[in-house]
Specification:
six-stranded mixed β-sheet, 2-enoyl-CoA Hydratase, Chain A, domain 1, 263 residues, four-stranded mixed β-sheet, 11 helices, alpha/beta, 41% helix
């Protein structure tokens, strides 16, 4: 009997969903899964027909609990390191200039490197049974999660509490902290993720790509005056009223119909 793939893909039009499929290990990120994630992000980036990606985990117990520490322990015992460490290719969407948005649909535990994967996605939605945490401090492992939490707008006190205590927060706390934008019942998580992805996919590609480009180039983190100065150039001219999308938007509004963006 052949083994199930560690990453399952489903494509609907211009949206693709990748499901991490190691439920027996709470979708822990071993070398094989990380390799498939790296390949997935590259394919998503390079496919002109795809506009939005969803990343989620199988099983209902975990999005992913992060690094597969059992695999790491086995390698450490032999004096070895995992290939993804040596290559610096960890499987996070933030490692790539995608130019397209990524939605993390979180159900269950989202911990450590799994939290980092979610944080480097653009939008995070969660089921109400989800828990978010950074327990590396309890295992002596370094982490850049504190920076990433602060970067997405989580308050300093919450960042320090999560990363110094190692204790997780629940979905309601994550929503209050701005870590996620929506919390839904578990059975509504994937329908919500697909509906949001399809909504974004149907919006102006020029504007969606422009906003994503600005984010990837760090414009959101610049001082206000500097960000305003470079915004138009960085976002690829989306501010122009003469782009094909802008012209179609005005025309469709005047004709009282939905816009049909061809770009």
């Amino acid at each position: 009997m052949s083994e199930e793939p560690v990453l399952i893909q489903e494509r609907r039009g211009s949206v693709v969903c990748a499901t991490m499929n190691r439920p027996h290990a709470l979708n822990a990120l071993d070398a094989a899964l990380r390799a498939q994630l790296n390949l997935f992000w590259q394919q998503f980036r390079d496919d002109p027909e795809l506009r939005v990606a969803i990343i989620t985990g199988a099983g209902g117990r975990a999005f992913t609990t992060g690094r597969d520490l059992k695999e790491t322990a086995r390698l450490n015992a032999k004096g070895e390191r995992p290939a993804y460490e040596l290559e610096g290719a960890y499987g996070y969407p933030g490692e790539y200039v995608l130019g397209k948005p990524v939605i993390a649909a979180v159900d269950g535990y989202c911990l450590a490197a799994g939290l980092l994967l979610a944080l480097t996605s653009d939008i995070r939605i969660a089921s109400d049974r989800s828990r978010f945490g950074n327990p590396q401090v309890t295992r002596g492992r370094g982490t850049r999660v504190p920076y990433e939490l602060a970067r997405v707008g989580v308050a300093h006190a919450t960042v320090m509490d999560m990363t110094l205590s190692g204790e997780p927060i629940d979905a309601a706390q994550a929503l209050q902290a701005g870590l996620v934008s929506r919390v839904v019942a578990p059975e509504q998580l994937m329908p919500t993720a697909w509906a949001l992805a399809e909504k974004i996919s149907g919006n102006s590609p020029t504007v969606v790509t422009g906003i994503k480009r600005a984010y990837e180039m760090g414009v959101f983190e610049l001082p206000m005056n500097e960000a305003r100065r470079v915004w138009a150039n960085v976002t690829g001219g989306m501010m122009s009223s003469q782009t094909a999308d802008s012209i179609e938007g005005a025309r469709s509004f005047a004709q009282k119909r939905s816009a049909d963006f061809a770009s």
